[in-house]
Design goal:
By secondary structure, the chain is α/β, with parallel strands linked by helices. The chain has 3 domains: 9-132, Rossmann fold, CATH 3.40.50; 143-234, no CATH class; 238-360, CobE/GbiG C-terminal domain (Nucleotidyltransferase, domain 5, 2-Layer Sandwich). It has 13 helices and 17 strands. It has helices spanning 16-28, 53-60, 73-80, 114-125, 134-137, 143-149, 159-168, 188-191, 250-263, 284-293, 302-306, 316-322, 328-336, and strands at residues 9-13, 32-37, 48-50, 66-70, 92-96, 102-107, 128-130, 153-154, 174-176, 195-197, 216-219, 230-234, 238-244, 271-277, 296-300, 340-347, 351-357. The strands form 3 sheets. It has a 7-stranded mixed sheet with strand order 3-2-1-4-5-6-7, sandwiched between helices. A 5-stranded mixed sheet has the order 8-12-11-9-10. It is globular, with a radius of gyration of 25 Å. The chain starts with 8 loop residues before the first strand and ends in a 23-residue tail after the last strand.
Amino acid sequence: MWPQPIQKHAIWALTPKGAALGEMIRKRLPYARLFVSAALAADYPRARPVERLKTALAAQFREFDGHICIMAAGIVVRLLAPLLVHKTEDPAVVVMDEQGAFAVSLLSGHIGGANDLALEMARLTGARPVITTATDVGGKPAVDILAKRASLGIANPRAIKAVNMALVAGKKPLLYDPGNTLGRVMAPGEADCFESKSRDPWRLDGPVTQAEPRSGVWVHDRVRDLPDEVLVLRPLSLIAGMGCNRNTPLDELRDLLFSTLDKAGLARECLAGLASIDAKLDEPGLLELAAELGLGIRFCSREELNDIKGIKSPSAVVAKHMGVSSVCEAAALAAAGKGRLIVPKKKTPNVTVAIARIGSMWSASAPGIPPIFPGAPGGF
């Protein structure tokens, strides 16, 4: 599982009792900030004073992963309604009364983490958690929670409802998860709620025929047309190895990377990182590309690249000038650990790109491209 980011929380309180409860929570909850009405600010020097709640909450809403609002639920609903986008994007919101009797998961219970935050408030304060999502009430796993637990991206959020409704109804959604990415985070009882398939049930050469649409989950880095009831989950499974001439512009680097992924039928959102040779540590275009995509970039030594055997597209020119027979393919494999090259070198006059899949997550290669060889142990 990928490392989980630090969670930042805002605590909002309007009354003296609410502020006292909020201060207690702030002391016990890491990375939390307390906001209190301006009239109470003198008593809480560590808190940020609020002159107008509507304005302050709107300004801070997306600056935090979760909000704990110690006030009436009606106030919170009315203030937040104009700010909401989608449950996959909105932060968690938990409402508590000033007595600390209840902690209500109000918004973004699953992906946003409000259900977990309500349970955490119950642990810290003794409040009774109130969780109303159907899967939790029915004792069923929620597919969006499982996806979050496995650090999987959600490509088509609208399909979450179909899968979760099937789970609540006791139907078993089909699950195609060749890398067992979702399977690794499921408890035995949760796994039993799905019908796992070793072969793609929506494969192009023989789709499953059914009397009525059936929900399902498809965990892969390939781009595919699938029924609306199938939830597509994206693993961080791909490494792009890149080489370039000095001072190659960002646009040329980005264009070749994206066109390579698109032509291979691979999802851009599955990129976990970039890799190159350490001679490019200060290459402006590569650094700009990594920053633009929000990705890390690993720079490999010549010795590390030369240790990669069986390169598909070695270059005598690169060997002469860089001291290695390959940059993009070897870097992709070195950074992918026990992976395999699924897209060999593609190039423009100034850029080379190759794509490797991390850690042998599954055996299937990109369309029309055979796997080449397992890489050496390691990691990105």
